[in-house]
Design goal:
The chain is an alpha+beta fold and about 425 residues long. The chain has nine helices and eleven strands. The strands form two sheets. A six-stranded mixed sheet has the order 2-3-1-11-6-7. A hairpin with a 5-residue loop joins β4 and β5. The two termini are about 90 Å apart.
């Protein structure tokens, strides 16, 4: 019913709309309540208009028509506002909006759930694909190539951030202790110290130097048959049950090889008898260089350090070291221009390591001749070993027989067995 057809004497009866007719019985009470409220408000408005007309028109209905325009308009506006309020308070409208909001949330949840499962499936497939690819990729030094490349990437990042110049912590002498023996590759037979020479290849000091030799590989190291009284320890980096363990040469393998081949000045004994085999960087016969004695090395300034030796197996010890800084050695016997790496190996070639030239110039890199205030023992690498507190222990070669400067990245014993070439801490 519109306000223009409003008759005060006519009873108001609201007809339910088509939407209201379809309301379930459970909601009928709410609808009746809302309709009743609207009817009461409309009746109140009708009574109000009748009272105002009587007060303002004592002369009858004719005068009411003359004064009806303003009052009637205001009454109609009040009724319209009350009707809108009643409609707004209708519980069906709020419940409808609530149902609509719940439906939207449910639909959004379904979309997000499907999307999450899709992303998880793709991620799981990609992870499995990467694992399968990495495990079936071509091997590089006993590691899948992707993992070997990851080693190299980590090394490059470490070089960029640290520049091989960060100093390792030092400790008071009271904390130092004797270093345990762990790994005897290259030092199994006692060396006669008087026969020791350090071969140096790739230095700018050549023909004019008193230590120059046209073939440093022809030098003969002498060994003693006496048994060492040291505990040889046990290298735990390799499980003895592994299939590779039987390939490790027994202590007398070099003696057997020398007996089979014979020893002459022109022919060296068989090299690389340990598990990793012979180094690809070992010197060929006829290589010229320097043959330095211990007296030559003692011309260098002596330095002491109390630093930590860290093994890749997870143990560490604080040790007192003494010897010569590698950076001083490089100044006295400088490498030729273009050198990027330093290669070292034991006199028998059974153990070998490679380094960046920069880490050899680190102020804490020592050519060690003493440990814990005494000369090195045989199983600790007498007469000369390396200490690098910025590297793991397997890079700290014992009994150095050769130092060669090179432009090419040199071979490394443990890298050939799957370990990291850089081995930085």
């Amino acid at each position: 019913m519109t306000l223009e057809n409003y008759d005060p004497k006519r009873p108001i009866v609201e007809q339910p709309s088509s939407s209201e007719k379809s309301v379930p019985d459970a909601e009928s009470g709410k609808v009746d309540s809302a309709v009743s409220q609207a009817e009461e408000r409309l009746c109140d408005g009708r009574s109000l208009m009748a009272e105002e007309n009587q007060n303002r028109s004592p002369g009858g209905f004719g005068e009411l028509q003359d004064t009806d325009s303003d009052e009637s308009r205001r009454a109609k506006e009040k009724l319209a506002r009350r009707a809108e309020d009643a409609t707004a308070e209708n519980p069906l409208s709020a419940e409808g909006r609530s149902h609509s909001s719940d439906d939207q949330v449910s639909e959004e949840s379904r979309i997000r759930t499907r999307r999450s499962f899709l992303v998880a499936g793709v991620a799981a497939g990609a992870g499995y694909g990467f694992y399968y690819w990495s495990q079936h990729a071509r091997e590089s030094e006993m590691q899948p190539e992707p993992l070997r490349e990851a080693f190299d990437s980590n090394a490059a990042l470490s070089r960029f951030l640290l520049r091989d110049r960060v100093l390792a912590p030092t400790y008071p002498l009271s904390r130092a202790e004797a270093l345990r023996v762990n790994g005897v590759a290259g030092v199994k037979r006692p060396l006669i110290i008087e026969s020791y020479r350090l071969q140096v290849v790739g230095s700018t000091r050549g023909l004019g130097d008193p230590a120059y030799s046209a073939d440093v590989t022809g030098w003969e190291y002498l060994y003693s048959d006496a048994k060492a009284h040291e505990d040889p320890g046990r290298d735990t980096k390799i499980d003895p049950k592994l299939a590779s363990a039987p390939r490790m040469a027994p202590a007398g393998a070099l003696d057997q090889a020398m007996a089979r081949e014979g020893r002459t000045e022109q022919r060296r004994p068989r090299r690389g008898l340990e598990e990793a085999g012979e180094s690809r960087s070992t010197l060929g016969p006829g290589t010229s260089g320097l043959l330095l004695t211990l007296q030559d090395l003692q011309k260098l300034p002596r330095h002491e350090l109390v630093t930590q030796f860290k093994c890749v197996e997870g143990w560490s010890q604080v040790v007192h070291w003494a010897g010569f800084r590698m950076m001083d050695f490089l100044e006295l016997y400088p490498p030729v221009p273009g050198t990027r790496y330093v290669y070292m190996e034991t006199p028998d070639g059974d153990y070998y390591t490679g380094y960046d030239l920069e880490v050899c110039r680190h102020p804490q890199t020592l050519l060690v001749t003493e440990m814990m205030g005494a000369p090195l023992t045989q199983l600790h690498g007498a007469p000369l070993r390396l200490h690098m507190p910025t590297k793991y222990g397997y890079k700290q070669i014992k009994r150095i027989g050769l130092i060669a400067y090179t432009r090419d990245k040199p071979d490394d014993y443990w890298t050939r067995l799957g370990y990291d070439w850089y081995a930085g801490l």
